[in-house]
Fold:
Amino acid sequence: MGTDRSVSEDYGGGAVRYLVTGGAGFIGSHLTDALLARGDEVVVLDDLSTGRLENLKEALATGSVEFVEGSILDAELVDSCTAATDVCLHLAAAVGVQLILEQPLDSLLRNVRGSDVVISSVVKHGGKVLVASSSEIYGKSSGALLGEDSDRILGPTSTSRWAYSMAKAFSEVLANAYASECQAETITVRFFNTVGPRQTGAYGMVMPRFVQQALVGAPLTVYGDGSQTRCFTHVRDVTEAVLRLCDEAAATGKTFNIGSPHQISIADLARRVIERTGSDSEIVMVPYDEAYADGFEEIGCRHPDLSLIARIAGWSPRVTIDEMIDDVIAYNSATAAAAVPADLNEVA
Ligand code: NAD
Structure:
């Protein structure tokens, strides 16, 4: 393990030029801020489908970030971005199970074709690419600690929920294939329920949704009996993990879980949000068959094994669940984003 800027050294020890696809989104905008803060240069490529320029307000004000509005499906545009950068953080995607349930074709093609366009272009220009994947990869595997080499247990292709998992898996195996056949420098990261400021509740993310409901005194709708657990991780910890992996030569060619070892049930999360907002909201349990469209299947728990990233990058998360909730409350209180969209699910 080392904490030296191996990438900077590869490129002559100066600032590294990063391409962040999906950089106007939740995680991508925090990564952009962190890269700028340490003196690197950033090009953001984003089609603003779920991302927002507002997320990059402070970054754009520095004058050290170039924003390119466009799609990762535009091979020529992507090529012009990768040609001018050293490392690509590939985050652009149709994110979350809910979006794929609602817009299956567009979402799948964005994730599958888009990853091919981005990864092949980075490889062509001899750069390094970090591919953002998801704990959804593990499918129904529930209960046991999930290591990067754990088996994946998926439902049938006729259940649309699994399409997101398969699209993310495609990006992973594509990166692996480019690494083995073309000696490409790749890193794959699987995020487990990242939360924090700038995350929208509009696509089913449970923490911003609960906070937004609590702030307006609306019932917090918990689907099922609320016993399903998740391991939430603050975006500040996630950002640190990603940058450590980019800087660590031994991370190249590997896949890493990025999450938290601490589980919380969704019912407990709802109670905690009510407590910390001081809201009068009640908790309403909604049976799964009323809450979800056809094609949805809930997962009991997802608990990441974090020993690989601890060993290779010396990383473990530090932000507590209460600090996460407080940050999400502060952000939603300070923005007009507190409106609660009508039909929300609690998937990540
Ligand atoms: P997000 O929706 O905020 O970010 C995705 C960004 O990609 C958005 O800015 C969107 O406008 C952009 N985008 C979508 N399609 C595009 C296209 N065709 N061309 C260019 N830009 C496009 O979501 P996020 O939570 O920041 O997710 C970032 C990455 O992390 C995604 O790859 C997602 O699958 C992965 N991930 C996130 C979580 C989480 O908990 N937030 C969990 C697992 C995996």
Summary: Residues 16-192+234-258 form a domain with the Rossmann fold fold (CATH 3.40.50.720). DSSP finds 13 helices and 15 strands in the chain. The longest helix spans residues 104-124.
